[in-house]
Design a protein that fits this description.
By secondary structure, the chain is of the alpha/beta class. It has one domain: 3-Layer(aba) Sandwich (Rossmann fold), CATH 3.40.50. The protein is built from ten helices and ten strands. Strands 6-7-8-3-9-10 form a six-stranded mixed beta sheet, sandwiched between helices. A hairpin with a 2-residue loop joins strand 4 and strand 5. It starts with a strand and ends with a helix. The relative contact order is 0.19.
């Protein structure tokens, strides 16, 4: 049984007076990939932004590796070993590929944790090595997504959170992203927010399904696949 790495308990979050996350609870074991699913507006990105410290939590707990991190500063959460690949990539367009990677690099990590280097990233993404002196803004959409993932890896995380990594990408590039995630899940714990259900379920060990800020399913991918009523009711697919 996987050791629990991330735990969310009774999480409540508000935008002003609007209650947007309602007693969210789920856990993620180390070395597993969890697909966080739901329609647009279900609360997926809000949950991710709360985990990494971008949004304040009203109540509840977020624990990472046994330590509570809710409402900690984003830089402290990053240093603890969480890395986000944000929706829309948000790479530094005026910097080169090399500079985008180097700006995120860590010099040291705790004992037993892998230290990722630019060479490691270049092995996973050979095209980034070819374009290391090119401005990031001039890359294709797929290359920018590779760079966003590579930049996150340079922080040497234990937990990688990806928010809609296939968004706006051509089918061939989506397949490349899938191949990369299959490799990364051998070394990292991953939370994947993804509208592409086929991609998400081809990779997932576990699934959390949100609807209007509430958890309607949390369990194994195998158990989720057996509940077609959930797919139809909450994702609009059969």
């Amino acid at each position: 049984m996987a050791i629990e790495l991330l735990s969310i308990e009774n999480l409540n979050l508000y935008y002003g007076d609007s209650h947007v996350l309602h007693d969210i609870s789920w856990q993620l074991g180390e070395g597993r990939l969890l697909a966080l699913l739901g329609r647009n507006g279900a609360g997926k990105s809000t949950t991710i932004n709360a985990i990494v410290g971008f949004l304040p939590v009203r109540s509840g707990r977020i624990s990472f590796a046994g330590a509570e991190i809710q409402n900690s500063k984003p830089e402290s959460i990053s240093q603890a070993g969480l890395a986000l690949v944000p929706q829309g990539r948000r790479i530094f367009g005026s910097l080169t590929v090399r500079e985008n990677l180097d700006v995120a690099a860590r010099k040291a990590v705790p004992a037993g944790q892998r230290l990722w280097t630019r060479n490691d990233v270049n092995l996973i993404f050979p095209r980034l090595k070819e374009r290391q002196n090119q401005l990031a803004a001039s890359l294709s959409g797929g290359e920018q997504q590779m760079l966003a993932i590579g930049r996150a890896l340079m922080t040497s995380p234990r937990l990688l959170l990806l928010d809609e990594p296939s968004e706006g990408l051509a089918p061939q590039i989506v397949r490349e992203v899938k191949d990369v995630l299959e490799k990364l899940k051998q070394e990292l714990t991953i939370v994947l927010v993804e509208q592409n259900l086929g991609l998400a379920m081809s990779l997932a060990d576990d699934v959390v399904l949100l609807d209007t800020g509430r958890v309607v399913f949390a369990g194994s991918a195998a158990a989720f696949n057996q509940q077609q009523n959930l797919l139809q009711a909450h994702l609009g697919v059969a």
